Amino acid sequence: MNREDWAHLVGGIVEVRLNGTLIRVGRVIQATADSSMLWTEADAVEQRTLYSKACGYEVRPRYALGGVGRY
Questions:
Q1: Mean pLDDT in residue range 33-57
Q2: How far apart are the two ends of the chain, measured CA to CA in Å?
Q3: Which residues are within 8 A (CB) of 19 and not within 5 positions of it... i.e. 6 or more apart?
């Protein structure tokens, strides 16, 4: 899978990085069709958050939808 294709990550667990530094691990709840932005769901510690490629964020898949298998 192409790491640049964020639209296919909805439902999966991802690592969000900025300048190589891990910012967050979370589940993707929505992404734009052009893969320019995605949202991670809120959890016990973090709020729902929007990340944009234009701001330099990178997203790396960790687990597939439902946690079954790996990307």
A1: 95
A2: 7
A3: 56
For residues 23 and 68, give the distance between their C-alpha atoms in angstroms, rounded to a whole number: 23
- 48 is written with which tokens? 């729902």
Whose tokens are 């939808």? That residue is: 65
Determine the Cα–Cα distance for residues 19 and 7; give it in Å rounded to an integer. Answer: 21
Phi, psi of 47 (to 5 degrees): -85, 165
What confidence tens digit (pLDDT) does each residue in 53-71 have?
Answer: 999 999 999 865 555 444 4
* Residue 45, CA distances (Å) to 1, 18, 42 in order: 29, 19, 8
- Of the candidates 59, 46, 63, which has an alpha carbon nearest to the alpha carbon of residue 15? 59
Reported as type and span, the H/E element at residue 14 is strand 13-18
Quote the pTM value.
0.81
